[in-house]
Amino acid sequence: MNEKHRTRVSKRLSRHLRHDPGGLGLTLAPGGWIPVDDLLAALARNRFPVSRAELDEVVAKCAKQRFAYDETGTLIRASQGHSFRVDLELPDSPPPEILFHGTATRFLPSIWAEGLRPMKRHAVHLSATRETAWKVGSRHGKPVVLAVAAGEMAARGHAFQVSDNGVWLTSAVPAEFLTVSE
Length: 182
Known about the structure:
Blueprint: H1 3-19, E1 34-35, H2 36-45, H3 52-61, E2 67-69, E3 75-78, E4 99-104, H4 108-114, E5 124-126, H5 130-138, E6 143-148, H6 150-155, E7 161-162, E8 168-170, E9 178-180
Antiparallel strand pairs: 1-3, 2-3, 4-6, 5-8, 6-9, 7-8
Helix pairs in contact: 1-3
């Protein structure tokens, strides 16, 4: 499969696994899972046929590892980034002392006033590395990377989970736990 087609398939999967499963007539099972056969049939019914081999390639080659199979390979889900409430059934995990969040400088006034909020997602997304956060922030304008005192947050009772693709998730980050990362 060429890169252009792989990107089209990835975008379609993101749309329906992260934002609108009902648009394909699908309902997420607990954990955010959908049977692979149901997904492929729904895509075909909606004039976007994808073979199992193509799906496997998208899951394997997506640089951000947005999608994951269960251990049997019969279920698929988006690793994170849902715009609706879904319990991915991820266990709470102790975070590293510092995590990072990339954003655009134009958002700093509201971040300093309100902290990091999930906005259109169900959780705030944090990165384990400054480099990853910089790339994320670059998508939104002039980037800035914020350091998150995740260890201190956890010590004060804030819960963290880590998704299948290594993105750290938490419900919100109060401004007191944020500094600009140099």
